[in-house]
């Protein structure tokens, strides 16, 4: 099973799959530049959400924290898109969405409706990327399975300082 910091705290096996919170990033289109931007925006969202969710005790707390900080996640995604030269719309939203079956290492997450953070870049008509935010089953390409996830984001620290938060 692939676990990040939040999953270790909650224990992925301890969280019923119906309580999982997913991440879904939709690219503007299927062009090479849009697909590369999608991955950059994904990375910014993962950094922001992992920092926010790492100490959550359960899925309900994680969902509340995610919704309370949706503007912060949206800003992180928007800033990364702008840093990559993208001038179009980037919007983060939460809701309940359909997801297909997905395998994370030896763990299967069945298709179904899940609460999710959805980030739409532009028209959102391109290929998409998804994972499980809570418990954390999202890994970047450089991380070994089972390796603890620890992120530090200067941008997130700055943003949290603006809104009076802290880590």
Q: Would you kindly provide a written description of the structure presented here, covering whatever features stand out?
A:
The protein has 167 residues and is of the alpha+beta class. It has one domain. Helix content is 37%, strand content 23%. It has 5 helices and 6 strands; from the N terminus they run αβαααβββββα. The protein has helices at residues 5-10, 32-53, 59-68, 70-83, 154-162; strands at residues 21-26, 90-99, 102-104, 107-109, 112-121, 128-134. Strands 2-5-1-6 form a 4-stranded mixed beta sheet. It has a two-stranded antiparallel ribbon with strand order 3-4. α2 (32-53) runs antiparallel to α4 (70-83). The chain starts with a helix and ends in a 5-residue tail after the last helix. Residues 1-10 and 141-152 have low confidence and may be disordered.
Topology:
Elements: H1 5-10, E1 21-26, H2 32-53, H3 59-68, H4 70-83, E2 90-99, E3 102-104, E4 107-109, E5 112-121, E6 128-134, H5 154-162
Parallel strand pairs: 1-5
Antiparallel strand pairs: 1-6, 2-5, 3-4
Helix pairs in contact: 2-4
Q: List low-pLDDT spans.
A: 1-10, 141-152
Using the CA coordinates, give the radius of gyration: 15 Å
Largest sheet: 4 strands, mixed
Biggest sheet: strand arrangement: 2-5-1-6
- The portion of residues forming beta strands comes to 15-25%
Indicate how many domains the architecture comprises: 1
Number of distinct helices: 5
SSE class: alpha+beta
Distance between the termini: 27 Å
Specify the helix fraction band: 25-40%
Number of strands: 6
Average predicted local confidence, pLDDT: 81
Overall spatial form: globular
Can you write the helix and strand succession as a string?
HEHHHEEEEEH
